[in-house]
Amino acid sequence: MLINRANIENAFTGFKVSFDKGFGSAQSTYEKVAMIVPSSASSEIYRWLGQIPKMREWLGDRILNNLEAHSFSIENRKFENTIRVRREDFEDDQYGILSPLFQELGQAAAEHPNELVYDLLKSGFTTKCYDGQYFFDPDHATLDENGNVISVANTDGGSGEPWFLLDGSRAIKPIIFQDRIKPRLTRLDQENDENVFFRDEYIYGVRARSNAGFGLWQLAWGSKRPLDNSRYAAARASMMSLRGDNGRLLGVKPTVLVVGPSLEEAARELIMSQTRANGASNPWHDSLDLLVTPWLG
Question: SS3 for 163?
């Protein structure tokens, strides 16, 4: 191929088509467990964390909920992915070889939020959230109906492969995905660009800004104990009986079980099988959705 501006432009147009194809074909599931928040600054402050609004009987003056009680900031991070294309590849018309590479570049960009969200979920046993406790912790503080501070757990501990019950039915979700700048394909392919002049290569890259942070721990249960009927039942019961400040029932109901590849068989047997090994009916059949993700592997 003759190297001129028109042909370079045509090549980039083709690369972008491949990039967009890969981006659109990626399998993303993070939206099921994370609330997507558009960001317009270097960081965002979430003052409403800790609040699950509940109606109350109006007796006397209104009771004002204090949005400053729990403040949590998520700072955006910057990410990139860059590839180099030799000038000889253009001269020798190697588009068939290069197109899959740009398609993979697009798929990686689209899948990146999965990595952020599920990596954060895995770290919840050792990473603090807005109340100063680990996201999955046996000692989250709340108030009982008499105003006394009590401890509430959203984990039963363990040391094995993690599994998670999440309530993804609400506007607020257990995880926050903060989206500042969406992935975009850019280039250095001008004849006077340093990389072209000195190294005879064209550079293409993706840039994005985003981050993930913890939302409401009340909507999540994390366990590293074996995934079986008794522990699943106990986790569901604990989530559904959870009460907020002043003893108000929160109405939490798990909607999705999240596991990695190593627990897929146990999870499918637990909630997708209609009968148990002894032939009895399975009370947990179709009790929620199953999400198996490689990002927990």
Answer: strand
